[in-house]
Amino acid sequence: MSKQEQHWEKSRALLFITLAIWFVFSIGIFLFGAEMNEVTGPFGYPLTYWFTCQGSLGAFVILIFWFANRQEKIDEEFGFSERGDD
Amino acid sequence: MIKGNFIDNLPKVYGIYTGGFLAFIIIMAIGEQMGMTKYAIGVCFVAFTIFIYALIGWLSRTAQADAYYVAGRQVPTVFNGMATAADWMSGASFVAMAGGIYFKGYGYMALLVGWTGGYVLVASLLAPYLRKFGCYTVPDFIGTRYGGNLSRFMAVVVLTVASFTYVTAQINATGTIASVALDIDFKYAVYVGLVSILLCSMLGGMRGVTWTQVAQYIVLIIAYLLPVFWISNKMGAGFFPHFMLADEVSRIAELEAQFGFVKNSAENLKEVPKGLAGITKAHSAVNATPWAFISLALAMMMGTASLPHVMMRYFTTPSVKAARKSVGWSLFFIFLLYSSAPMLATLSKLSLIDPTLPTGIIGKSISEVQSIDWYQNWNQANLMFVSDFNGNGTLELNEFFMGGKAVVLATPEIAGLPYVISGLVAAGGMAAAMSTADGLILAIANAISHDVYYKIIDPKAETAKRLVVARVLLVVIGFAGATIAAMEIQGILGSVIWAFDFAMSGLFFPLVLGVWWKRANREGAIAGMALGLISGAGYLIWVRNGGSGFLGITQLTFGIFGSAVSLVAMVVVSLMTSAPNAATQRMVDEVRVPSGKSILGKQH
């Protein structure tokens, strides 16, 4: 397998992990919204309600930065990273 | 004071700007104490901020194609994040979102989840690859990846339908705020809004829009957060509302149980002015079925990833790596406002309905409420209304009606904050609506000038001529949008949501599969765009005209149907026709590697 194919394979694996986490916070939780809202979540808010105002939103922010860092590592590993600037 | 080039000095420039803006707020506050009228304060806020944006627009003027279309591809990660956040957060996010949460509670929060979750799709599926491609516009990617003028043209059509639906709502919002703050008729205020929008983008194109959007973000975030923190402290609800409103949320649930949601008769509701609503849904309890919630969130997420004015912001970063990080920063800056909207809704609702608070009006006598100063003001502005339906002389929860905008615009006044805060909020709303309108008008004008005029009609046109065409289109599209906005066909929020559905119906799968599926070809993409848009629009028209719909897909989520048709059509037609040629396949391989030259040259 060429270097480029391996790079793409790893990038695609990362995509699937990222989308799986995204699925949990954007869709998974809300399948059980009513049940989970009975539980008290962080700072004392009802749990599902907390996810809609802070939890899921914050999780997406962290997820994107995590994804960007992982992808950069993959790019470096195969020598595809760009020079310098951020 | 400032040496070296502009980009290196950005933190300093915007630091001084932020300090200057805070100083301006303090001067206005002193002015208010010394007897400045409300009208003068409102005018000062709106005029001063618009003047600053216009100045930035003028300083960013350019005659180069890559500066005009993609800001020279040198916008640093964090600043691009701020610009995207302003581009993204429209008049609807700023003025209408907290109101939506106030009225509909949990069910409405699907929009918050959708409008943030979409950025994960942007970061992982599209933005870095489109940046590597090196295109100027979104149709530029479609046209080059799939080849042929028809695919390029179809992408322009989808882009125009979605963005134009969106932009009329934004011009409408600038008009609403300008008409309140400057006290002029809405019909003229719309054009005042339009001229201010064009001042930012005419001369500098994307470069001008980028630097004004950063300035607008700073204004809008201060204008949103300051009142939320202030009100929370004043009510004694906690100095950091985001972490401390659990008691208030449960108190609202308690009051809801005590009052109950009484349903008004149709006859009584006829009295209520158009556009106002009462509280009919629980605040924090789950009040929507899982599918209703998820389908709305999903439609907004896929729409986010297909809206060209957002995508083109990531064409301005210096590298692919920076494009990815920049998406994270964008969402962080959006998060600051979105996580505050539910807090504002909670504070606003509690301060109105809790009879034990001095600001509470439920349970007071109708005549007492009608004599309150702020009630009279907002009643006159057609944003508040009470009526004694049951004739018992006291105000019940079901007898109080408010416009969605009032939650953001009136809460500072209800909570007894000085008027300077209301002026600030008006400036913030104006900034939010202007920045989004700028991005949208530019997206449409750039697509038509670059993709239709330059790439299809006259490929030999010189840069100077191309930029003249781009600017003329900017003005024409702006005026067309303002004219439609002046007719006030539908509310701000409804048309914003439609724009997402149109965009995802026509563009989501052609964009994503263009990167992720090598076998996707021209015929498939054209079928996907055309059938997706037509079936989505058809579904909307059908439901609007009394159609029953299916699978619980409403007029707010018709994009789910449109994009499903688009996916099927694209896959089936691609597989029925021949695979893309070797050069195209190589191009896709090239896009997937972040390093190296972009596919399209620097000047194209």
Explain what the structure shows.
- The complex is a heterodimer of chains A (86) and B (604).
- Chain A has 86 residues and is an all-alpha fold.
- Chain A has a domain of 47 residues.
- Chain A is built from three helices and no strands.
- Chain A is elongated and about 50 Å long.
- The two termini of chain A are 31 Å apart.
- By secondary structure, chain B is mainly alpha-helical.
- Chain B has a single domain, classed as Sodium/glucose cotransporter (Up-down Bundle), CATH 1.20.1730.
- Chain B is built from 26 helices and three strands.
- In chain B, α6 runs parallel beside α14.
- The mean pLDDT of chain B is 85.
Write a short abstract of this structure.
Chain A has 86 residues and is mainly α.
Q: Which short descriptors sum up this protein?
A:
heterodimer, A: 86 residues, elongated, B: mainly alpha, Sodium/glucose cotransporter, 3-stranded antiparallel β-sheet, 3 strands
Largest interface: A-B, 46 and 56 residues
Structural class of chain A: mainly alpha
The helical percent of chain B reads over 70%
Mean pLDDT score of chain A? 87
Q: What global shape of chain B is seen?
A: globular
Rg on CA atoms of chain A, Å: 18 Å
List the helices and strands and how they pair.
The complex is a heterodimer of chains A (86) and B (604).
Chain A: H1 3-31, H2 33-36, H3 47-77
Helix pairs in contact in A: 1-3
Chain B: H1 10-33, H2 38-59, H3 65-70, H4 77-88, H5 91-104, H6 110-133, H7 138-146, H8 149-182, H9 186-201, H10 205-234, H11 241-244, H12 246-259, H13 266-270, E1 276-277, H14 290-304, H15 308-311, H16 320-338, H17 341-353, H18 366-370, H19 373-380, E2 384-386, E3 400-403, H20 406-414, H21 419-457, H22 463-486, H23 492-516, H24 522-544, H25 558-576, H26 582-591
Antiparallel strand pairs in B: 1-3, 2-3
Helix pairs in contact in B: 1-2, 1-10, 2-9, 2-10, 2-21, 4-10, 4-16, 5-17, 5-20, 5-21, 6-14, 6-16, 7-8, 8-9, 8-21, 8-22, 8-23, 8-24, 9-21, 9-22, 10-21, 12-17, 14-23, 17-20, 20-21, 21-22, 23-24, 23-25, 24-25
